[in-house]
Design a protein that fits this description.
- The chain has 248 residues and is of the alpha+beta class.
- The chain has a single domain, classed as Aminopeptidase.
- 23% of the residues lie in helices and 28% in strands.
- The protein contains seven helices and nine strands.
- Strands 1, 2, 3, 4, 5, 6, 7, 8 and 9 form a nine-stranded mixed sheet that branches.
- The chain starts with a strand and ends with a strand.
- The model has no long low-confidence stretch (mean pLDDT 96).
């Protein structure tokens, strides 16, 4: 397949179906309270930072999308609040009229029936090229390792130290894709995404009973969800991994 990757600004006809693409994200991840700082205005405020892809076999049908957000750093170190921190800092920079000095990947989503064909790497490469065209010196990414959900009790710092014996590349395929594309693993973002809800909301999102107190495993979650039945809430704090792509 020949993939054509452009910005949403160049192909605004994709705006109508941008969020309809079938994907493999867990339902609970659609309820991060900061997400609307980008996603609710992506088509109107950030079309230059949304990449859309279709292929020659099905032109006009979205095959993959990639979202980026410009933001202003607070200090020199990438923030511990990762994905949520990018959203907050990006929104504040726009509201205060400050010039962004960084741009971050927010997501790369490939249509479910096209997974495993190397489209994610093509989208990473396209994001690197586009960020450079926009004048940024580096592209940063709070990466969500795709195998981490299989061992939610393993600390992320331990998980990312795991390398393959044959080439010393990361054990996790998504981290490996970023490193092969030129990215450098920098640090863990220990509270990259925080999602809280009532027990009824979590039952709706997961189909699980959420009755016993303490940590429970939830399919698709990278760490256990902490349940507090006496106070009718549960909270999920997801760690991500900061990867930096130097562009010059």
């Amino acid at each position: 397949m020949a993939l054509r990757i452009t910005t949403l600004a160049e192909r605004p006809e994709f705006a109508a179906t941008l969020w309809d693409m079938e994907n493999s994200w867990p339902e609970f991840m659609m309820h991060d309270p900061l997400a609307d700082l980008f996603y609710a205005v992506a088509e109107t405020v950030y079309p230059e930072y949304v990449l859309v892809a279709d292929d020659d076999a099905e032109p006009g049908r979205l095959a993959a999308r990639g979202c980026m957000m410009p933001f202003t750093m607070e200090g020199d170190e990438l923030p511990d609040d990762g994905w949520d921190g990018v959203l907050r800092r990006g929104w504040l920079a726009r509201e205060r009229g400050r010039k962004p000095d960084r741009v971050s990947v927010l997501e790369i989503t490939v249509r479910r029936d096209l997974l495993g064909r190397g489209l994610s790497r093509l989208m990473v490469d396209a994001m690197r090229e586009h960020a450079a065209r926009l004048g940024f010196a580096e592209l940063v990414a709070p990466v969500r390792p795709i195998w981490k959900h299989e061992e939610p009790y393993t600390p992320m710092a331990e998980y990312i130290r795991r390398l393959r014996h044959d080439d010393d590349l990361p054990h996790d395929p998504w981290l490996r894709t970023h490193v092969r594309a030129g990215g450098r693993i920098v640090k863990v973002a220990p509270r990259s995404m925080t999602i809280a809800g009532t027990l009824a909301e979590w039952r709706k999102w997961t189909g699980l009973p959420f009755e016993a107190p303490g940590p429970i495993e939830v399919p698709g979650a990278l760490t256990p969800v902490l349940v507090e039945p006496w106070h009718d809430f549960a909270v999920y704090v997801e760690p991500n991994v900061w990867v930096v792509h130097a562009l010059s």
